[in-house]
Specification:
With 1336 residues, the chain is mainly alpha-helical. 70% of the residues lie in helices and 2% in strands. The longest helix has 24 residues, at 305-328.
Length: 1336
């Protein structure tokens, strides 16, 4: 539209806003709002750039706020919100002044709410850039209105607007931050007023203000509040208002308060949540007068309903404060935690107007049915009773329960106290948190009942996780529980839990949320040892699930309240029960057969796809119980087979229609395939061949469908890999065997990585278990399709070479005539891969297995294959790793060839290595190196000591090459010597250890390298079973070289000791601890041993070697139970002053935290954390004179880096072991340390932003200065690599700043907010910010 038409349109709308008909005014205002929306969204209207038009629109909207019609007022407020985003700042300020005038005008009482809403809308919607000036206009006037007005409505409106203003601009607008102190004083004054409503609003304003206050002013505010609380002891109204305000502040910024303040606040809260005041309806026989006389709230008149309501509101606020403190600063709350739990347990039952009949609640098995009826009636009557509508004691109970949930969250890493500790509650009674929660499942109020169920479910879940980590143990766990708390869940809790949940599930009407949470609780219980219990409990749970799944026509079972959500929850419970492996399979089978199977089969006919999918998952878990769920002798074979047949037919009838359906959800298709796999894999022998063929054909159809082929491949793998215990015969896949193999082979040509991987694995299984010798042409085609996968450019797929090799091997075994196909299609690429420097681990093992099978099956002649491999020498010679791989390939095929061929290769090798000569020609040298490698790998497999003269000749040759001028030949000889020792230990090992004492350090290093190779190969080949007999021969020599002056020798000794510890942990750890005890006397003033103190030098080097070996053993997954026993001995070395020993001890701790966190979890607090704090701030700087200049060296830098690495890993692996608040000052100092330490600290801060944001908010001010200093580092004369490092350093600091800026609450710190805004606005950092934005 043109500008003139725009003007005419807006003029017409403005004119209509003055129309006498309210409908016309409403529609005109609505249209005006739409015009403004288009303008704000970017569809700019030129006429709105005219200041006079803007002023007319603003005047019209303000006038409409005075309109007599409520509807017009409402649309005017909405229009105002849009208008404020489009007009200039001048107009915004005029609107703000006008609205403020109206709010503060005592004569405008009828429309004051509308004006206040308009002003609050203005505060919430104006652009941030206008916040400072707008706030400057409003803050002073609002404070004057509160201070001078006698009208309560004006004061309330000003407090509400001020609260919004503080929330939006309290930390960023200078005009507001300057007024923090006056605002605080005014609000504190209002707390002493006579109006309860004003006091409450003032408390809310203080809560919002506390978020943006500086630390100094926050401390001052809390102190003033506490002082006023002390002064108001005789005034209940003031006390309640102040306590409520303190609760609000605690909930908002409790994590920023210091320990002394928390220690003053919590006792006040506890005074008003005295457990003795937690009355219940069953206390009729209790003397309440005495109770009040002994309570801490004797100022409350319990007979006055208004006073009771106020007291309950105060208690609710106190428990909300507890919840905030426990969640945000658990370490500071720890001294008060016991009393908080006592109060929460007491007020969880606080229900003075209702009697639960506690005596009746204690039921036994005989009276269970009668109790169920009473329980049902109780809940049915609940909804029809209106007598307790004014009873809000449930809010106190709910807040008490939520504070318990906070305790569970705070103790999630070690919840043992919540299961074992008894707390004194009231009237002389004690309670354990877990048992008290179970007893409280009878709660009559739905909201509270749901929270109780959720709280116990959370407690159970964190306990299961803690048991998996070894922190606690369940009574049924087969583990050493001497150092952990044992929880007897099965005996003490499982049966009461199941019965309590069943009572909730029995309710006929209502209570759907409770039922859903009860089902969730039972699902969590299944994850604990013992599950829901024995056969009786399993069948009982199944019966309740049956009632949710029953048809509406089945009146005997169907419940009216069984919504689709409850049916989904019930099916999820069944699925968890069937797959958790914590129940007796016999009990599960009987429960399925007698109770649940018809309803599960019927559930797949539901309308909601999620219910159908969950039902199919449950059905998929059923068949295995009819394989493993029979005890010998329980029933005859015929009866057992009949039962299996009936179940299999029911499952077929339920699954087959969905397997054949095309117009169903993808999730249903995949679940139907999973269920088919379970049925055919376990019960195919009990299904007729016709039905089996139908399902196999449907499976083939799904295999050819693009959307379901991966799921179908997995299904085919499961079926083909299963040999059921029900019979010796395998499933007959002949109806689809040829087509399925051909189809999966065709998938290997596609680009999908997951599809190729799945197809390879499935082909291996199918050909191995079901392949036919008549499929030679098909196998040849498959092998041809496989060949292009054997390339080193994609080792992720080449890792699938493990499966590819098995496919080739399986094809050779099933159909020997496939040999030419393997040779023509697979072998060429496999040979190329043999010389690849990228080949390792599983891909290498698969290649070795393929080459071995080629020789065994005579698909390729040995000499031909040997020649092919030797021809790869030139290609392999480019990489040391490829040379070693090629040597292993030749050794493997030689080990499985004929004796004659093997002896010929050995003779040829001895001839090549004769006299240990080092050729001058590079090609000849590589031939010698390959011969050494082949001799070693062949000696690992073949015992050379059985061949006359071979072992002696090789010993001489290997030792001769230790003097070679070629480093490659030296290390190849050491490698070969170690590997030959595995096959002929008696011939080679004594020679190695004897030579250790007769040679120089260089040869000692090579001999130790050979010994390490022997130890590691022996462990991988024989599992370490034979190494124990060799320890007396090996250990004396290793111990002797623990104190070698050459670090390389000591490192090799440590690797040997670490490998031995992995294989023989009990013997080795005991010996290593003895070595530590014998060499722990080290004198190291200033961190260094005096050069004249030979004893301390030897001890320090020995301890370093042992600690390094323990570090390697932990990384190598040594037996954790053995490591735990000796860990305190090793950790004592953290106290040593010698820097090398101390650093080795720290690195050992890092390895333990990373690989075995539970091995040291109980030792962190006393033995590790104090040393970490000491080392994290240790600096040992000295200057080194380098002639023209001096260089500063910090000898403690490696220790600080190690300690920070441990801290970072602890936050991931052992978060409960650290006091995050105590760590924050250490982290702040690390942010100002040298570059390497800073980079570590940056990563820790970024991690904590996600893991512990509350603590980050508390410490963000201390992070600001070091980050800003780093970001503004100047390059000086740096160029090249140094400049790149500096840029990365600065980039890391900016990344950290951005991460901090995303944490809620950090921008309330004025110092950080200013730094953040300055940095983002600085053009110098624009490129860095753009790069980091792309990274995200």
């Amino acid at each position: 539209m043109s500008g003139s038409s725009n003007t005419a349109s807006i003029n017409a709308l403005l004119k209509k806003t003055e129309h006498y008909d309210k409908d016309e005014r409403y529609m005109a205002t609505s249209d005006l709002c739409e015009v403004l929306k288009r303008h704000s969204s970017g569809d700019t209207l030129p006429v709105l750039s005219d200041s006079s038009t803007e002023r007319r629109i603003c005047t019209a909207v303000l006038r409409l706020l005075h309109d007599k019609s409520n509807d017009v007022q409402a649309i005017a407020v909405k229009t105002l919100g849009v208008l404020l985003t489009t007009v200039k700042e001048e107009q915004v300020l005029e609107i703000a002044d006008s609205l403020a005038d109206q709010v503060l005008d005592a004569s405008k009482s009828e429309l004051r709410d509308v004006y206040a809403i308009g002003l609050r809308t203005l505060v919430k919607t104006i652009p941030s850039s206008m916040g400072d000036l707008t706030s400057q206009r409003l803050v002073g006037r609002l404070l004057d209105g509160i201070r001078t007005s006698q009208n309560e409505e004006i004061v309330l409106a000003c407090l509400d607007i001020l609260t919004d203003l503080l929330g939006r601009f309290g930390a960023t607008a200078v005009s507001v931050t300057r007024q923090h102190e006056p605002v605080l004083q005014m609000c504190l004054q209002q707390l002493r007023g006579s109006s309860p409503v004003v006091r409450k609003r003032a408390g809310n304003t203080i809560g919002c203000l506390s978020v943006v206050l500086s630390d100094v002013l926050l401390v001052s505010m809390v102190e003033r509040l506490l002082s006023q609380i002390d002064a108001a002891a005789g005034n209940p109204g003031d006390t309640r208002a102040l306590i409520r305000t303190m609760c609000t502040v605690s909930g908002a910024v409790g994590h920023r308060l210091q320990q002394p303040q928390i220690d003053r606040i919590l006792p006040i809260f506890l005074k008003f949540t005295n457990p003795t005041d937690a009355l219940t309806g069953d206390d009729d026989d209790y003397d309440e007068t005495d109770d009040r006389e002994t309570s801490g709230s004797n100022d409350l008149d319990m007979e006055d309903e208004a006073a009771v309501a106020l007291a309950n509101e105060l208690r609710e606020s106190c428990f909300m404060g507890f919840e905030s403190f426990v969640l945000r600063c658990p370490n500071q709350v720890e001294p008060h935690l016991e009393k908080i739990i006592q109060a929460a347990l007491a007020y969880m039952c606080y229900d003075p107007n209702y009697s639960y009949g506690e005596d009746e609640g204690e039921t036994n098995d005989e009276g269970g049915d009668e109790y169920d009826d009473e329980y049902d009636d109780e809940y049915e009557d609940e909804e029809s009773e209106d007598d307790d509508d004014d009873d809000e004691s449930w809010k106190v109970r709910r807040s008490a329960i939520r504070s318990l949930k906070a305790v569970v969250e705070a103790k999630k890493h070690d919840p043992s106290m919540l299961w074992t500790t008894s707390y004194r509650v009231r009237r002389g009674k004690t309670a354990v948190v877990a048992m008290a929660l179970v007893a409280r499942f009878k709660e009559r109020e739905e909201n509270c009942r749901v929270d109780i169920l959720d709280c116990f479910t959370q407690l159970l879940s964190v306990t299961v996780s803690a048991a998996e980590d070894g922190v606690v143990a369940f009574a049924s766990d087969r583990m050493d529980t001497t150092t952990t708390t044992t929880i007897d869940l099965r005996s003490n809790y499982a049966k009461p839990l199941v019965r309590a949940c069943e009572k909730l599930l029995n309710v006929k009407k209502g209570g759907e949320r409770s039922k859903s949470h009860a089902l969730s609780l039972l699902s969590t219980l299944c994850k604990a040892p013992g599950g829901v219990g024995g056969q009786e409990e399993i069948i009982s749970v199944f019966q309740h699930v049956q009632s949710f799944l029953a048809d509406e026509d089945n009146d005997a079972l169907h419940r009216e309240a069984s919504s689709k959500t409850l049916r989904l929850d019930a099916l999820s419970l069944v699925h968890v029960m069937l797959v958790c492996n914590n129940h007796d399979p016999v009990h599960i089978r009987k429960g399925i057969t007698d109770t649940l199977l018809p309803q599960l089969c019927q559930a797949v006919k539901e309308q909601w796809y999620k219910v159908i999918a969950e039902a199919l998952r449950a059905l998929a878990a059923v068949p295995k119980f009819f394989v493993i769920g029979f005890r010998p002798g329980d029933q005859s074979t015929e009866v057992e087979r009949k039962e299996k047949g009936e179940v299999a037919n029911q499952l077929f009838a339920a699954i087959e229609p969905l397997l054949a359906a095309h117009d169903v959800d993808q999730e249903i298709k995949e679940c139907a395939l999973t269920a088919s796999a379970a049925l055919l894999g376990a019960l195919h022998s009990t299904i007729s061949m016709d039905k089996t063929t139908v399902m196999l054909n449907l499976l083939l159809e799904r295999l050819k469908n693009e959307t379901t082929r991966i799921a179908a491949i997995k299904t085919l793998s499961t079926i083909g890999d299963t040999t059921p215990d029900s019979g010796p015969e395998k499933i007959d896949l002949s109806p689809i065997l040829s087509d399925s193999i051909e189809t999966m082979a065709s998938f290997l040509k596609l680009q999908s990585r997951s599809l190729k991987q799945s197809s390879l694995e499935a082909l291996d299984i199918i050909i191995t278990n079901h392949g036919l010798s008549t499929f030679d042409e098909l196998y040849s085609k498959v092998l041809q399709d496989l060949s292009h996968l054997v390339v080193d450019s994609d080792l992720h797929i080449t890792l699938a070479h493990l499966s590819l090799s098995r496919v080739s091997i399986s094809a050779l075994r099933v159909c020997p005539s496939c040999g030419p196909s393997v040779q023509n299609h697979v072998l060429p690429n496999a040979l190329a891969l043999s010389a690849s420097p990228l080949l390792q681990d599983l891909a290498l093992d698969s290649l070795l297995a393929l080459l071995e099978q080629l020789v065994i099956s005579n698909a390729v002649s040995y000499h031909e294959l040997l020649g092919m491999l030797r021809d790869r020498l030139d290609q392999a010679a480019r990489s040391k790793h490829a040379m070693y791989n090629l040597g292993r390939c030749i050794a493997v095929i030689t080990s499985v060839t004929s004796e004659e061929n093997r002896l010929g290769v050995i003779s040829e090798t001895l001839f090549t290595l004769e006299d240990s000569k080092t050729p001058a020609d590079v090609a000849a040298l590589k031939h010698v190196q390959l011969a050494l490698l082949v001799s070693g790998d062949l000696g690992r497999i073949v015992d050379f000591s059985t061949m006359p003269g071979v072992a002696d000749s090789l010993q001489t040759i290997f030792k001769g090459y230790f003097d070679s001028s070629s480093e490659d030949l030296k290390y190849a000889a050491a490698y070969a010597l170690g590997r030959c020792t595995v096959g002929a230990q008696s011939a080679f090992l004594p020679a190695i250890v004897e030579a250790l004492e007769k040679n120089n350090q260089k040869k000692q290093y090579l001999l130790l390298s050979a010994l390490r190779e022997f130890i590691q190969c022996n462990g991988s080949k024989r599992g370490g079973d034979s190494i124990a007999s060799s320890l007396p021969v090996i250990m004396p020599h290793l111990e002797k070289h623990c104190a070698d002056s050459e670090e390389g020798v000591r490192t090799m000794v440590a690797e040997c000791l670490g490998s031995l510890t992995c294989m023989e942990p009990a013997l080795m750890l005991e010996r290593l601890s003895q070595i530590i005890d014998a060499h722990s006397s080290i004198v190291a003033e200033g961190g260094f041993v005096d050069s004249a103190d030979k004893s301390s030098q030897k001890n320090a080097l020995t301890c370093w070697t042992v600690l390094t070996s323990i570090k390697l053993a932990i990384a190598g997954k040594a037996d954790q139970s053995q490591v735990v026993k000796y860990m305190p001995t090793f950790l004592k070395l953290l106290q040593q002053k010698e820097l090398g020993v101390r650093n080795a001890a720290l690195l050992m701790v890092y390895s333990a935290v990373h690989h075995m966190p539970q091995a040291i979890s109980g030792l962190m607090k006393d033995l590790i954390v104090p040393s970490l704090y000491e080392v994290a701030e240790l600096k040992m700087e000295r200057k080194v004179d380098l002639g023209p200049f001096t260089h500063k060296v910090d000898d403690a830098l490696p220790l600080r880096k190690a300690s920070l690495s441990i801290f970072a890993t602890c936050f991931e692996k052992l978060p409960s072991s650290l006091d995050t608040n105590a760590f924050m000052p250490v982290l702040a100092k690390a942010l100002g340390d040298v570059e390497d330490v800073q980079l570590q600290a940056h990563q820790i801060v970024i991690s904590l932003c996600l893991r512990q944001p509350n603590h980050v908010v508390t410490a963000v001010e201390s992070f600001t200065d070091p980050l800003e200093k780093t970001i503004h580092k100047k390059p000086g004369q740096k160029t090249g690599t140094e400049l790149e490092r500096l840029n990365e350093w600065i980039k890391s600091a900016v990344r950290t700043m951005l991460a901090l800026g995303k944490v809620e609450g950090t921008m309330n710190c004025r110092k950080f907010a200013d730094f953040y805004e300055r940095t983002k606005a600085n053009a110098k950092f624009r490129n860095v910010l753009e790069v980091l934005d792309e990274e995200r």
